[in-house]
Design goal:
The chain has 15 helices and 21 strands. The chain is an alpha/beta fold.
Length: about 475
Amino acid sequence: MHQPEQDHALLLESRTVLPTDHGVFTTCAYTFGDVTHVAMLMGDPAQAEAPIVRMHSECLTGDTLGSHRCDCGDQLEAALQAIAAEGTGILLYLRGHEGRGIGLAAKLRAYALQDEGMDTVDANRALGLPDDARDYTAAAEMLRHLGSPTVRLLSSNPAKAEALTSLGITVADRVVLPVLDRPENSHYLQTKRQRMRHDPLAGRVAVEEDTFPVYRTLAEHSEVIAQLAQSADGFIAARGGDAEFVSGEADRTHLHHLRAAVEAVLVGATTVTRDNPQLTVRAVEGENPVRVLLDPRARIPVTSRVLQSPDARTLWLVGQDAEVPTEVGEHVEVVRLPEGTTQTSGEQVSGGKDGPAGTSVDPAAVLRVVREHVSGSILVEGGGKSVSAFLSAGLLDRLFLTVAPVLIGDGVPGVRFEGSAVMGEALRAPFRRYTFEDDVCTEFVLSEAAREHDATYPRPGQRHQGA
């Protein structure tokens, strides 16, 4: 970090009230040297033992213009939300920090070099500029003036905590804000993690309910999500159908958390026939979701666990003309799919084919039927055709796709859908990444509704659990 060449006196210029989308903040303008900074306070931070504090570097392109090349705008919104959720805290908006202190023009020149293939560090160095030219002396002086010499810092950058410590501010804890990587800034953020010591997006985490705010988000909203674990070469099972186990125990615990968070879990007939799953919550605490079996031809064996075990209410979705056996548990409710939901020709409607006869299913029509029985979040758990059908139809709010470090070579395919002819039209979405032991799970946030749920869900910053 840059060290100041001379001392300056801190001057409080004004103090007023600023109503925002996140609540009402007391806003102070401070001049330090020839730069005016802003402090936004909620509650009475001076009375807190260690209030949460975000030192936010000015970023015109990210904060104001909505650029996706960085995560500055997302971090600003997340910080204000975290402070509002806690009810007490400080956001220091530090001007003169554009482009990690190199200025707007130089930052845009560095962007041009990044367009040619350089990362953010090499671009700065090619221009003869430091990796990070920011000075936090003004921030330390503002915190002292506000009566907060001890803070919990909202930041994934350990250098910020070190800078404050060197300036006499005690950093009692450093709290990471879980914001989404975007396709446009993923390489930039990865460079900061690899070359500038920023915390990893997610390290080897303990899969507990409070580790991932998304579990509570799903429980409190009504989304359609999907989960799939596949090999590195894209298969969910071996050629003979054996899928035990593609991913490891931590990923399966994550799956059970998802089941506990949703109201219903939906699977296709092939998954039930091949795996004979229970579709219950066993690895974590929580209630079993409603089981939804998508089986237009009623070909699930009557001896299957889902049709015999009373552990969860079960909806058996079958076609109008399908013959349904009567030797099933009382927990099973047979639901006839409306005419037009399925076709028996070779032509697909908008989803994957269900079974060797070529029965195809309209995922949107299936979802309408399910919504007549459940109102909360729905998890499409399998198999690959069902998940791909809902994804291709644009019905998923989120997709949790886990890749295991195994090569199957030839087996049951995972995600498959009719894609674009060119990479520029490929499906891209904001995402988070988690490492579950040896497996890597990517959470694609596909819909505007899901992104809104992430932005508005009231949660404080989440402590990083990385390795």
